[in-house]
Amino acid sequence: MRSFVSKPIFLVYAYLLIVVLALNSRPATSWLEVENQEDFSYVTGSGNGPENWGNLRPEWAKCKNGTQQSPINLAFSKMQYAPELGDLQMKYTPASGILKNRGHDISLQWAVSGDAGSIQIDDTTYVLDQIHWHSPSEHTVNGRRFALELHMVHKNVQLKKVAVVAVLYSLSIFKDPFLSKLEANIRDISGTGASEVNMGPVDPNDIDMSDRKYYRYLGSLTTPPCDEGVIWTIKRKVMPVRIDQVMLLRRAVHDGNGNNARPLQPLNNREMLYYSALPTSALVDSM
């Protein structure tokens, strides 16, 4: 049977189909994160600094008018003991990674989102997409700020939901073993050199997540567009990192972003939960 679609029209349809498929196959980060560091900065008082993020684009309005923003101060006096949360269900595996200098931070993106494993929270699976570092820490604990904070970003693309697991680090004579494996590659992408390097298999299990205790609250992304509804899990145990490792990360990013911690945001009566297998008295006694 003859086709009633002329060749030029058929070519147009084919082109449109390719475009749609390409858009749908973009990495999961495209619907939440800003990759271009020139779009915003951490320089207080600058036109694109943290206090102005919400004015830079209409879709970033949450950065100024959101009511569940991150980071926050994790104050013991306002925490609720929540044994019902249970141990964090994590299942990670080595997978091919790409180390990137995004200008505002150094990140490790797994080549195929989900290949590196996942976590499960409230019967919902979130696949591990990428990790990145902030220095100094974005979250504080009882007003104390730490030298470094690692964010493990997990996503459920179908639900468009995010769950971040954060690890805090304080200065020590001991190196962080996971960062030690990446140091040479971080130097390769420092400053204005190459922006990324293929790492081959990287194992998320090399990040020490052995401590079962953690804090939990509902917040937001800490970079534009500051979308809310992010489930935050901050591991209680503070890990060691050496000063030269922190400085390596700070010097690698572009000018003005060595300090890449967003200022603390109001709690606005949100719940802050604390999980431990120990009785409630351990909340204060063991911290």
What features would you highlight for this structure?
alpha+beta; 13-stranded mixed beta sheet; signal; carbonate dehydratase activity
Describe the protein in words.
It contains 7 helices and 16 strands. With 287 residues, the chain is α+β, with helices and mostly antiparallel strands. The strands form 2 sheets. Strands 2, 3, 4, 5, 6, 7, 10, 11, 12, 13, 14, 15 and 16 form a 13-stranded mixed β-sheet that branches. It has a 3-stranded mixed β-sheet with strand order 1-8-9, with no helix packed on it. A hairpin with a 2-residue loop joins β8 and β9. The longest helix has 18 residues. The N terminus is likely disordered.
**What is the distance, rounded to the nearest whole angstrom, between the alpha carbons of the first and last residues?**
77 Å
What does the radius of gyration come to?
Answer: 21 Å
**Proportion of beta-strand residues:** 25-35%
What structural class is derived from the secondary structure elements? alpha+beta
Number of strands: 16
Give the proportion of residues in helices. 10-25%
Order of helices and strands: HHHEEEEEEEEEEEHHEEEEHEH
Keywords: Lyase, Metal-binding, Signal, Zinc
Pfam family, one: Carb_anhydrase
InterPro entries: Alpha_CA_prokaryot-like, CA_dom, CA_dom_sf, Carbonic_anhydrase_a-class, Carbonic_anhydrase_a-class_CS
Domain Alpha-carbonic anhydrase: 38-276
